[in-house]
What does this fold into?
Amino acid sequence: MHALRYHIFSFKGRTITDSNVTTNNLPGRTRLLLTNIEPAQGGKYSIQLDKACPETELSMCLRVESPPEPPAGKPTVAIVSQTALTVSWNPAPYDGGSAITGFVIEMEQNGEERWICVKRVPNSFSCLIDTLQQDGCYRFRIRAENVHGTSHPTPASDLVTLSEDNRTNGTSEIRANRPTASPTSSGASFGSDVAPGESGYGGDPGGLESAPPQQSAPPTVKFSAGGDFDEQFEVVKEVGKGRFGVVYKVIARQGEAGTVMAAKKVKCIRMKDKERVWQETAIMESLEHPKLLRLFATFELPKEIVMVVEYISGGELFERVVADDFTLTEKDCVIFVRQICQGVEHMHSRQIVHLDLKPENIMCATKTSHEIKIIDFGLAQRLCASSPTRVLFGTPEFIAPEIINYEPISVQSDMWSIGVICYVLLSGLSPFMGDNDVDTFSNITRAEYDFDDEAFDLVSDGAKEFIAGLLRGRQEERLSAQQCLQSEWLSLKSGDNVGVNQIRTDKLKKFIIRRKWQKTGNAIRALGRMANLSASRRVSVVPRETNPEFTIKEK
It folds into this structure.
């Protein structure tokens, strides 16, 4: 065996040139030393022991956690009354490697050049401030918080003056037919001083990590459902294409000009197509929550309907956590599942079920953030207590037993899907996957699964108990979204010494590849076979007017 001659370190496949990184080659060992490390230096580090032998390369992932970056851009202000206004802001581009737990709203009054803390709000991008003085002049700025501290402040908002004759002199808006939410928040006492130029790093996050989600105010950027889409938006590029239409990145020309959004153009040849889209937009208009995709406007064109929604650049959650520069731990899973439950709890509080919760519909807000968004409300339904709802659609592997059996659904049908997502995220395995759809449906109806695979060896008992509380055959026995948020597992904090082990993602990568293959191959799966198999077990038949197409929707 020849002697080792080289010790070559690299970062994300590139030679390390940072001035704060040094290497020491000592007898029998090599050391890589990083001093005053920056968040951008988190990622995959590799060492090649022998230049002549590529197989001697070893790798490890380093994650650097820090206070978050401030929200992007300056906040906007909309005047509500002579003594009240709403402050809105954008998400933070980077969360510091740990979920953002809340935001601090700071205010400057009458040009005094003294900033005071007026409120702390969790899980919202807007806040109502209703204790102001008439004829007062105000500016606002925002800081983001996580368990490691507080960000620098954003640039200050434009100056606004509250008076009797300028109630609408806040942010320029083009109002749409959107429902009005009642913004609520809680937080720090009014009037806490903030020293001039104070960075806020290392501050106490205020215990906001486990605070309940707050209902957010309507977004300040609103566009009319009428008018010309091309007049109000500039199309930048195509970012996605599906069976029903195309998604574009667009920039607003009116309202808050320059705001980046996404426009989903849906083909609507038949009236039935339009009715399907209008049902989806009606559902989205009734939902206002930071974890749910926001709808800003709709435009009806001769052969298509355009839905303008917020732009999400982070990609699918599962693809982010298997990236080379991401080290997945059980604590990360807690952060992600908690946010899913927060968004779903908001939907369920309005008696709305999503019915298509799956990995492809959980997106990351940005490429470097732990913030997630639930998307695609095309199958969502509003439940009515006086009229039981039955459906025969969903996605194989993620649908609940009652859907397969054509039994009345409830908000608990979504909770089953969350249990499956959590199982897959922690292990990379699909709990009910069979050789074909019929086998899969059979496994689901029997609620047969286990934690025997070695992938669960390092998963905590709390995580397994959480999943077991969701994957119950009887709907009434499953945990609700609210109960999930109060569970011991989702209450884990970043400082808790639980769930710190790295989760291997090789099986999760295979799961993602299989899902993509299914979508490009036999993507639309018939449920007629299952309907025929279960027809002998029930007396009722499908009501003609409901017209379920016996399809499992796969996109």
